[in-house]
Specification:
The protein has 13 helices and twelve strands. With 431 residues, it is of the alpha/beta class.
Length: 431
Amino acid sequence: MTLSILLFTIITFLACSIATHRRYDGYKLVRTIPDMDDDLDSLRILKDMYEGEEVDFWNGIKRLGMPVDIAVSPQMEATLIALLEDFGLRSTIVITDIQALIDDQMRPSLSTRVKRDADSTNEFDYNVYHPLGEINNWVNDIAAEYPNIATKIKIGASYKKRNILALKIGRASPTGDSKPVAWFQAGIHAREWISPASIIFVTHKLLSGYGSDNEITALLDGLDIYIIPVLNVDGYAYTWTNDRLWRKTRSENSDSMCVGVDANRNYDLHWGDADGADVNPCNETYRGTEATSEEEIKAVTRYMQGVVDSGDTIRLFIDFHSYGQVWMAPWGYTEDPSDDFEDQNNLQADAVEALTAVHGTNYTYGQISQTMYKASGCSVDWAYGALGVLYSYTIELPDTGDFGFTLPPERIESTVTELFEGLKVALNHIL
């Protein structure tokens, strides 16, 4: 290929990429706090009427006294604030330019990649966000770096035929006996970048600490830990190439121009229960046409069922999300507590105490439907109710809304440092 043709190809590719990449220049994050039942009803009306490209409810409508964050375009800002005022709701601006924070998230990774290419090194920077290709390369590299305690696994394939990769870490039992299993998964919601970044960093801390840290060595000798850095691979890739704030999968919906399903409303346990998911394909919490309609959920549930069928016992399941700083147990589909809630709650209380002790970061904890809102067809309910995983949790990572989904890369390390202490409590408990 001649130089002129190569340059034309690159320029054309960049032009197409720029043309199709959605930007959020001038978008603001507006916060309102409902303090009466009528406020909750009003916000639900606004969500049903206006949610779309120009109005996006970032953290859902929860409970009285809990902030509701709404991303709004410059064109809709005045209208939204006026509507809130008409309903008697006060509002404040939390983020003045969402695109500036997105640029801050992406820039360190881009500069790191340039430097890495120039230096011809393969070092992975755990303090920046990485696109899917780099994460997949990391899975390959770290499995090769720790061959005695780490194995790469292909869980399945996505709607777009991308591989869903995982790691199984832990020392093989010298007697060949099965060991208790922990299952960690991240990135089920594409825009929650701190989720994959955190679990990747946690994996590195576990593997690099084996043999030198007595506690970590005991954990990996006694447990098998499965780790999926990115479950919603299509959606996550799309956040890097087209729309940073994309949440759902990328499957096509028949009879609708709207794309994707909320993969965390697609599990086959109380799928589609009232108030826990949306039936509108254009909504962010769209449940899909049926339970496990999404290839990603078919793949992960099939694989987990296979682990159990092989004779191993999954004792701990954690699905990592953001944002909110909450550690939550089943149920999501109902406000009734699970039969094991006291046991589940005691463990998450201990884990949160250890986490908070590091930097003083405040995490709340409790039952999903009581702590946040109802969510039917979610991973945690399925893991506990269908697969029998006693300690089944969702963790909403930082922050509480100052940055939301656009948490700066400078916050990755502190997030992981405290999270690691909480996870060690949970892992030691099942060991």
